[in-house]
Amino acid sequence: MRIKAPIKIDRKTKNLAKRLSVGDIAVINHKDIDEIAATSLVEAKIKAVINADISISGRYPNKGPQILCEKNIFILDNVGKEVFDTLKEGDVVEIIDDKIYLENNLIGSGEILDREKIKEKLKICHENLSNELDNFIDNTIEYAKKEKDFILGNLNMPFIQTEFKNKHALIVVRGQNYKEDLSTIISYIEEVKPILIGVDGGADALLEFGYTPDMIVGDMDSVSDKCLKQCKEIIVHAYPDGRAPGLERVKKLGLKATVFPAPGTSEDIAMLIPYEKGAKLIVALGTHSNMIDFLEKGRKGMASTFLVRLKIGSKLIDAKGVSLLYKSRLKVKYIWGLVVAALVPILIVAYVSTPIQQLIKLMELRMRLLLEF
């Protein structure tokens, strides 16, 4: 294998994905590449990934490397963090088999992750999954005890401008198949006109489909500046002690935001806000709702999500995966049905139209003359 191309480099894959161009080599430091990160790299149409860390550690079966491999993106794994000291953005590097060269100088090497190697590593992951599940459940129970009073009790809700009373709320989370799911429920958005809430990067998906988010909720680490400037209300998710790292970014853009200190995830408070404000129905898509989802987010349990869903369950519809549930295919019999339906009015017009009847008789007469000869 021989690949030569300019690099884009960042320790955070979600930041790097915004800067990638077609044909780049992405240099990342991402342990256990998750599905969302891999999808963002695939969408950028890069040539290769150089990962300073381990793409599959063996803790759980993360899907990222397999997604990259299926799209024929070369993966050079575990090259070491020293690569960040050697390379800078824009350098043109050459990958020859498992080695990296800069200006013909060897600067590092790693492990090639091909289909067979990924399959082998994922098999080990599945064997370790039961132990990971035990730890995950223990952590979930432990944190649920700590967070139950905050979530199930009287929530100290900040002032929210958006009016939710007796309305539907649609929450878009940057999760598995979230764009496909969003495209599937476009008719619902057009007909019902729900309040549109984007959780961090999920807000950009709304913008991509032509909708301006009514609210963005999150720590502001993956949503675009353009989306922040266009949305109607910004809720910065802060730590329970009040620290809100995302607030600084919002202020630098000259925008106003409301800070919401809370345990758990940003999507949890994105669900709690419409519920506490009297929304009639909450529709969520792209949400993180199982152990693999949470492990990919780097979380050891899902206490807050469990408690939030327990609290708002009567009003919540989870549309995650709806695009996989319903995939309409245009069948041949449907096409013939459309053809027949289109011919019916033509035949009726032909039957009642005198000029067309005369034309048919002329054609009939001409055919008889031809047959006689």
TrEMBL record:
<keyword id="KW-0812">Transmembrane</keyword>
<keyword id="KW-1133">Transmembrane helix</keyword>
<keyword id="KW-0418">Kinase</keyword>
<keyword id="KW-0472">Membrane</keyword>
<dbReference type="InterPro" id="IPR036759">
    <property type="entry name" value="TPK_catalytic_sf"/>
</dbReference>
<protein>
    <submittedName>
        <fullName>Thiamine pyrophosphokinase domain-containing protein</fullName>
    </submittedName>
</protein>
<feature type="transmembrane region" description="Helical">
    <location>
        <begin position="334"/>
        <end position="353"/>
    </location>
</feature>
<keyword id="KW-0808">Transferase</keyword>
<dbReference type="GO" id="GO:0016301">
    <property type="term" value="F:kinase activity"/>
</dbReference>
<dbReference type="Pfam" id="PF12555">
    <property type="entry name" value="SteA-like_C"/>
</dbReference>
<dbReference type="GO" id="GO:0009229">
    <property type="term" value="P:thiamine diphosphate biosynthetic process"/>
</dbReference>
<dbReference type="InterPro" id="IPR007371">
    <property type="entry name" value="TPK_catalytic"/>
</dbReference>
<dbReference type="GO" id="GO:0004788">
    <property type="term" value="F:thiamine diphosphokinase activity"/>
</dbReference>
<dbReference type="GO" id="GO:0005524">
    <property type="term" value="F:ATP binding"/>
</dbReference>
<dbReference type="Pfam" id="PF04263">
    <property type="entry name" value="TPK_catalytic"/>
</dbReference>
<feature type="domain" description="Thiamin pyrophosphokinase catalytic">
    <location>
        <begin position="193"/>
        <end position="234"/>
    </location>
</feature>
<feature type="domain" description="SteA-like C-terminal">
    <location>
        <begin position="320"/>
        <end position="371"/>
    </location>
</feature>
<keyword id="KW-0547">Nucleotide-binding</keyword>
<dbReference type="InterPro" id="IPR047795">
    <property type="entry name" value="Put_SteA-like"/>
</dbReference>
<keyword id="KW-0067">ATP-binding</keyword>
<dbReference type="InterPro" id="IPR022215">
    <property type="entry name" value="SteA-like_C"/>
</dbReference>
